[in-house]
Fold this protein.
Amino acid sequence: MSDVSDAMKGAVAGTAAKGRDGAPFLVAALSPGRTEERYEDKHPRYTEAEAVTEANRCLYCVDAPCIKACPTEIDIPTFIHKISTGNVRGAARTILTANLLGQSCGQVCPVEVLCAGSCVYNTWDRDPIRIGRLQRYAVETALEKNPALFQKKAPTGKRIACIGAGPASLAVAGWLALEGHRAVIFERKPLPGGLNTLGVAPYKMKADESLGEIEWLLSLGDIELRHGVSVAAEARGPHEIAARSLLEEYDAVFLGLGLGDDSQLNIPGEEGEGVVGAVAFVERLKVDPALAVEGVRRAAVIGGGNTALDVAHELALLGVDVSLIYRRGRAAMTGYAHELDSARVDGARLVEDRAPVEVLREDGRVVGVRLARTEGGRPVAGGEEVLPVDLVAVSIGQSRATQVALAFEGVALDGRGRLLVDEATGRTGNPRVWSGGDCVNGGDLVVTAVADGKRAARSIHAALVDATSPAGA
Amino acid sequence: MADLSIDFAGIKSPNPFWLASAPPANTGDQVMRAFDVGWGGAVWKTLGNPIVNVSSRFWANDYGSTRMMGLNNIELITDRPLDVNLREMREVKRRYPKHTLIASLMVDTKEEWREIIKKVEDVGVDGLELNFGCPHGMCERGMGSAVGAEPKVLQEIAGWAVDCARTPVIIKLTPNVGDIVEPGEAVERSGAHAISLINTVKSIMAVDLDRMVPLPRVGGASTNGGYCGPAVKPIALHMLGELTRHPKVSRLPISGIGGISTWRDAAEFIALGATSVQVCTAVMHYGYRIVEDMLEGLSDYLDSQGMRSIEELRGRAVQNYAHWGDLDLSYRVVADIDPVKCIGCQLCYVACMDGAHQCIHLPGRTEEQSRKAGHTHIPAQVPDIVALGKGAPAGVRVPFVDEEECIGCNLCALVCPVSGCISMKELPSGKPPETWNDRVQRGDDVVPGGLDATAAARAERGRA
């Protein structure tokens, strides 16, 4: 499996990590010619007329179910009402106060199973309000006109280190910066954003949109982004920083580590060109102009989760003949039904109850994958068949970033490698270390990571304020 | 099939649907196209000495995504030469002899009235509508609503017309008066043959907040205009009712105008005493074609009611337009929410909490939670939340009504987005019918908790 970070290093070389003058320093770091540029936006930003018409459909429910369905509890009826009156700036304020990554969430949230899925119109057999599209309209339109939506508080002198630049860390850094704290984000990859930048299906959101949002977020207050820096138990060079020194230099640490590398199938023929990890492949598709998919005519995607569905859908949209191989039946898939449906509409084929047992190669080149029939998710003898393919994308999960977490004293993991945190605060076993996002929940939504970040930011702020208030006060 | 033809002050019309004097009845070509698709008559755009109109003439009031709930215009009477209009009117009447053609007129002096009436009658119009209603532009010149708002002037000018007219004289009234009965009575005294109402309501539609100019904007300024469209229908119905329940004025046929957009609107005007109806805004919005539904809908409605003609419907609701003091204080309705139709938006709840009497409750709350939310009365019977949600698509989001506290205001039923979900059911109050006027007559029109001065004055009167 190829390492995308190497391919991207050239792309961002020479760019400053900070760009307070408002120039698009992160977006400018992207190279043109990326495969993701070939995708059309499935849900482009509404025009004003579209947004107002849709907003006017909203009933403005009381104690609305859509709010409860949102992990960040955005006051959806209120922001939609504001759109309907032309108060777009107010709408953006309502959204971003509850969710600092409201723009990307509007694009990438599976609203079908969240806010829109709980819209009362569903009860009435009517189309639910297009909440995601309205949210995107409000935030993009308002920030485009005037990005200065919030006023940061006076500096407190407190410093927070955020490890990883994914949605959880970004949310923590943003909220704490607004409270007047200084936040430093450490990211081992050349580009920030985590899966928001590197993993979201490009027909939902492209890397430049994610980076644009991050540029805005970094402008909220005293936030520094240090990329190309890894955290380890001991620093072995200029690109590493020791966990211990972070605890010494910062008042609080947030671990937004995300997940590790793609898991492997461990079958014959897997090693070598033509077999890719799904997450790594999508990362290249999004930001690596060197990725060539022209030679790929037929592909097998292995897995049944949302990443597998995304990869299958993305390949299908590029004109590749895609088979999605899942070891159980459709009902057992963890990927969303609406995502499977739209992937199939765009040409992906679902093969149920089959598992790959060997990748077939000729002169090193992948020519097919041997599939076994499965029962209860496990291969059984008899009825093997060969599916001719040029590419195998493996999407059966990701490893955990356990090493970084364990470098912090007091931080503990559960049996599945997930960080253990306090449910109410996101605090780990180390009272100065908090965590949230995929490394805690094992892999979930962007909006869940933002909600985790919000929870941690509240707790960190409370802890820092407590520490500054005079004893006995 | 019911007979839709009418006799309006002697004018026979194939149906009660007439185009009002406005842009849809501006030219002969327009009127003939309207007649072709079913309109029974047209009141031609007001004739007089031609004027000059401004560019940028209309503005509308939207509600949510509904466009043109109300429309306003600052257009004046016809800006076309009189002889062009007359030639076209003659042509229309020649080609459509059975359709109703009314000339709307607005001039100043007695001589002018005499001249213009002769000219339009010579081309064969079926009647005259004196425009005493236009509330902008013309009234400043002493015409239009300046006449309609002054009963004496109205009576005098109407008298001039009656004296020289050979066809029925209809007086078009302005709603921009304190009491519509006064101009109504003046029409009756003048000897005119009929009334049409309402003309437009004086209005400023909106303000352009960037330029600080009212709308519609004409360069750097605007002016007040005349408001019409669906939003004014209730105002028109009230004024119609005031005249059709008047013992004398009600003898005159009335052509109802004001926001009529559908057959149902038309039926309501006729039920409240109108003989014909005039339509403008709905045509400006959707075109002449809407008359197909109007004709069909009204005809089917009459059939469904077992009525054979417009005349059988006309005025049926007038006797039930009562004074407040004659309403039955013992009558009682309460809200009834159908859990099967409820979608759980809870708009009824918030409307009742903040805008009414706090008698709609959310299920699953403890008494303490209910009191904290603002309820002052806790119903004796709180329905079980599970039982309430059973069979209800919205499940536990279905609110319930505290019938004991419900005063039957209708607000919840009005805000509910699902037609038929909240109905107002009649409850026997157990009391005999009684009106406020009954109480006044008996002398017990006192509600405890009033002013000391009032109580003292009553006591004084009692001693006297």
Summary: The two ends of chain A are 57 Å apart (CA to CA). Confidence is low (pLDDT under 50) at residues 1-20 of chain A.
